[in-house]
Amino acid sequence: MTIRAYRGELLSVAQDPRDGGEVRHEVDGLLVVEDGIVAARGNHADLADRYPDVSVEDLPGLVVPGFVDAHVHYPQTDCIAAHGEQLLDWLDRHIFPAEAQFANRAHADALADVFLTELLRNGTTSALVFATVHEHSVDALFDAALARRIRVVSGKVLMDMGPDGLRDTPATGRAESEALIRRWRGRGRLGYAITPRFALTSSDAQLAETGALLADHPDALLHTHLAENRHECAAVAARFADAADYLDVYDRFGLVGARSVFAHGIHLTERSCARLAETGAGIAICPSSNLFLGSGHFDFGQADRHGLALGLGTDIGAGTSFSMLHTAGLAYQAALAREDRLDPFRALWLATAGSAKLLHIADRVGALEVGQEADFVVLDEAATPLLARRTRPENRRATLAERLFALQILGDDRAVARSYVMGQCAHRRD
Ligand code: GUN
Ligand code: ZN
């Protein structure tokens, strides 16, 4: 058994502040970690005597739980900043050609490595990840994540109506998904998500097969895109003319349940919000992507009226930053565009425990509570000259909320001094 302790300023939000969830903050805290799991947490003054022989590492900064990215595409890492198009044309012009290169396993291995390095540089220690249509694109990601002990949930993309070179069939899609589930179930910190790309790239036969697959594997997540962009919504309405709305297309094939994660949800009907709430299905909000592709702004007011389960995602490569801090800052700006005010503690919750709940891993990560895996990030409030000025000692009368908000608006990978995975340092900035 290995036991270590970490001393620093600890901050976490385990439950949605909107539902009364409290901010947990130890100005001079101690985190005791046994074999990668949090064994104790509290004020240093209260706890230190109980662990006299344990070596203590000082953490220089604000310590928060490792971020949980609730929606991101690893094969699109090299596609960030592709100019000129909204969703459907962007997919055709930039994304599908890039994903076709994943037919080559060595290419997938290389990108998986770059992607996971980028996650850790940004303090992200768990993620729900799109791969490509190729079965081995998931093997590449899972192999690399297993070696680094990063918590990754992913799955082969189902898309029998995709472009040339990126199509499976209802039968091969199902068989390959099942082979991956068999191969990877129960290994390390990995999980499987059944992943139809979106309604427009799967036939009715494949959507039906996806529903059957999900019914056979109740421990898997369902991960797809929903009501992201107006042109996409119009195309879905034209193809599925008898569906009540976009969500209903998925619902008819058995794809809407408590383990379903839908990215975006920018253009949701009141009916579909009620149905999401009724089933417990969640939305991964992706503000940088929504701005980049001109999709719109997530409606926090509507979501909260219905009590929707929410998390936060970067959606690389439509998203423009791997940083969940920056993404939280953009979520604030997207909310304000609709006259909603996203509190910085709620934004932190969205980026950690909220996303973890969406991914059904909140018992393991997201709040640095006793019994959880010790994934955490050390944030440097003086990472850039501007941040240093905004948070300088004269300003230290600034409240904790103001300090956290400054990190969300001005911070990014530069503010991540260190990332720890199960108590071990996995990234150190300098
Ligand atoms: N909808 C279907 N595929 C995609 C994708 O790769 N990115 C985004 N943002 N939306 C999608
Ligand atoms: Zn996406």
From TrEMBL:
Catalysed reactions, as listed in the record: guanine + H2O + H(+) = xanthine + NH4(+)
Any GO molecular function: guanine deaminase activity
Matching InterPro entries: Amidohydro-rel, Guanine_deaminase, Metal-dep_hydrolase_composite, Metal_Hydrolase, Metallo-dep_hydrolases
EC numbers on record: 3.5.4.3
Membrane spanning stretches: none
Cofactor: Zn(2+)
Domain Amidohydrolase-related: 62-423
Cofactor binding note: Binds 1 zinc ion per subunit.
Pathway info: Purine metabolism; guanine degradation; xanthine from guanine: step 1/1
Function: Catalyzes the hydrolytic deamination of guanine, producing xanthine and ammonia.
Alphabetical list of NCBIfam families matching this protein: guan_deamin, PRK09228.1
Family note: Belongs to the metallo-dependent hydrolases superfamily. ATZ/TRZ family.
Descriptive protein name: Guanine deaminase
Phylogenetic classification of the source organism: Bacteria, Pseudomonadati, Pseudomonadota, Alphaproteobacteria, Sphingomonadales
